[in-house]
Amino acid sequence: MARCDEGYLCEVCGEDVGNISDSDLYLRFVIGELDPERLHTTPERHIRCNPAVGQFIVHPDFEPLVCEGAFNKQELDPEYVQQRETLVSRGFERLREIEAQGPEGDITSYPLPEAIAKYRR
């Protein structure tokens, strides 16, 4: 089977990342942490398979994650944690909006406004 027929497989667990709202790759893209030029060359992961990022999602439809070790948000500066939770949670909500819209959307419209501004610079 050709790679394009396989879908997006998680580099951590090997399972299909079937929904954009489960995608660590697109989460990092919409919050401005993954350059659009690298989107097609960066390995995919489930959000749950990357707890260093996923632990910052605070949303009623997302079961909280704990990141073990030095990157556990309990070990980080509370102000940084608050800022990070706000950004990553907004990104997760944006993924849910994109998923609800269906595939008709233009990928350049996916990121949050501040990420779009960053990418245009």
From TrEMBL:
It comes from the Bacteria. It comes from Rosistilla carotiformis. This is Uncharacterized protein.
